[in-house]
Every structure is written in structure tokens, then in C-alpha cells.
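Final report, closing paragraph on structural work. Over the funding period we assembled a curated collection of sequence-structure pairs, and we close with a single example.
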Amino acid sequence: QVQLVESGGGLVQPGGSLKLSCTATGNVVSFDAMAWYRQAPGNQRELVASIRSGSGTTYADSVKGRFTISGDYVKTTVYLQMSELKPEDTAVYYCNVDVGYYSGSLFRRNNYWGQGTQVTVSS
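Its predicted structure, as stored:
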């Protein structure tokens, strides 16, 4: 059974930094189309950053120059390095990844969400 396990959230002061991690566990064969989303109270979930092999990275305008997404295909982990954090970055952050895995002898590929990790930026 494949799961995405997130870590790294917490409370940080404005201007501070955090690094989120999201690791796929299970019989993972491939790991691609990685993305981070966030959802603040009362708001819709929004795309923060994405990375796809061969296509590079994309960022929401609100985080460009402050956040960096990266992926480790060997460790099947996607990271989000967040710097110069602002109160408006406060939200639950979710990773989203296309994962290929074996179920018995069958190769399957599904899209998965992490459980979410709270990031709070406050003094």
C-alpha cells in the first residue's frame, strides 16, 4: 500500500524558514509529477509549486523567489524549502504525487495526496 508521509511543518516567525518533506512509502517504482498545495481556512486549495521530470518547475506568483521545490527520485521524496515566510503563508500544506507501484505482479500508477502539515507564520 502506497502512502505519502509529510513532515516539517510548524510555527515560525515572519521572515523565517521551514522545509517540508513528503516521502512515498510502499512498493514504489516511479515517483513523478510532484506538487505542493496549500489551503488556508475559508479558502480553496491552491497550487504552490510543482516539478515534473523533463518539464522543470512552476510556482505560484505569491511564492516565487521565496519557495523552492525539489525532488529526490531515489529517496522518493519531494521537498518544499520555504524562506522569507509571511503571515499569509499560513495554511495546511499538502503534497501531491503520481506514484507507480507493483500490486502483486501488476504495475499500477495512481495520484496520491499527503495527510497535510500545518504551517503557521506568526510573531
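DSSP finds no helices and eleven strands in the chain. The mean pLDDT is 95. We thank the funder for supporting this effort.
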